[in-house]
Amino acid sequence: MKFGLLSTTSWLSLMVAPVPMQLTAQAQKAHYTITDLGPSSTPFSQASAVNNIGLVSGVAVVPDGSQHAVLWFRRSFLDIATPGLGGPNSVAASVNEWGQVVGQAESSQADPNKENFCGYGTGLTCLPLLWQFGKPYTLALLGGHNGSAGQINKHGEVAGFAENGVSDPGCPTGARVNGTGPQVLDFEAVVWGPRQGEIRELHPLPGDTVGMAFGINDDGQTVGSSGSCANTVIPPFGAGLHAVLWDKDGAAHDLGNLGGTGNPDLLAIGNVANVVNNRGQVAGVAAMSGNTTTHAFLWTKERGKMLDLGTLPGDVNSAALGINDRGEMVGASFGAAGPINGNPRAFLWKDGGMTDLNDLIPANSPLHLLTAFGINDAGEIAGFGVTSSGDLHAFLATPCDR
Questions:
Q1: How many domains does the chain divide into?
Q2: Domain residues for 75?
Q3: pLDDT for 170-205, tens place per residue?
Q4: Residue 64: how many CB atoms within 10 A of its CB?
Q5: Strands (DSSP E) along 51-168, which ranges?
Q6: CB distance 91 to 49 below 8 Å
Q7: DSSP state letters, 291-321
Q8: In terms of C-beta density within 10 A (0-12 exposed, 13-18 middle, 19 or more buried), how is residue 252 classed?
Q9: Which CATH number is 373's domain given?
């Protein structure tokens, strides 16, 4: 059920335009069947995570053009954005086995600093949200106005990041490469819960001033990124200088790099730990030497440094976005043009190698798979792909031996 969102949540607004892609012939033997989660009426939907009972969280564009947090279960579709916080946009980033869902939602209040924290471009504040028992609950902040939640574990602990009240002159005063900004306040990685109203700040690495947490395992280990407000880009396509693992006691560990640091002027170039499984294995994305390309990585305590997972043949960039407790990873591999128009391909890392997920599905599948965001312990994979008509739809890939 571990997931990541390049890195988290609202980047999906950049993906609504159809991606030109022809369905290609797949390998002779199918290993997965593909379910187009739709719904058929939307031009865009995305599955962000799948838990161990097959409940899928994500987002879908509704008729008025806004993005709504949604759930899928065995082809059933549920819009959970209403009741919300009064704003138009929301996303369900993760769901645990108890059916608790976390993500973000816009409120009806204008941001007093005119920030664009969650990338929707509406000028509204964007808040971390927990859905449980059919109701939305806002999660606490650190004195600022915005925040976002990434992943929730089985204990109800939530990883994310929240603004504090510190005005930072080093923050960008204009729009960033991913459309967010301007940014006025610093933001820090946090863990919410497990009790209602609890928030615990995770301090960045020494010398850094801001942080973002994206993944958390059932032991309370949390992963993300840290840097300065000047060089750390909040999602969509979030990136920072340092990939970080925080122990349950809050101790921060630098996971190293693959030769690069980061480049806030290029989309998604940086070092980010996206997910951590219950074995303490960490998957993410790291900048390569020159700070113009990225590769997916795996980090383990035994190894003590990143393992470069490379890319699919012909590609130059990749990102690991999900991992299960068996150490199987999923993500996206793409060309030099970037994750939007660089022809992304969903990949599966298993048994020491990376495979194009499209080579493991039937040739008559309803989607060409662009990005895989989550994989559960049964091997089910969630993400999104392109239909023959150019719509972008959420998918669930189910192993054929199930």
A1: 1
A2: 2-399
A3: 999 999 999 999 999 999 999 999 999 999 999 999
A4: 7
A5: 56-61, 67-73, 76-79, 86-95, 101-110, 124-132, 135-138, 143-152, 158-167
A6: no
A7: SS-EEEEEE-TTT-SEEEEE-STT-SEEEEE
A8: buried
A9: 2.130.10.10
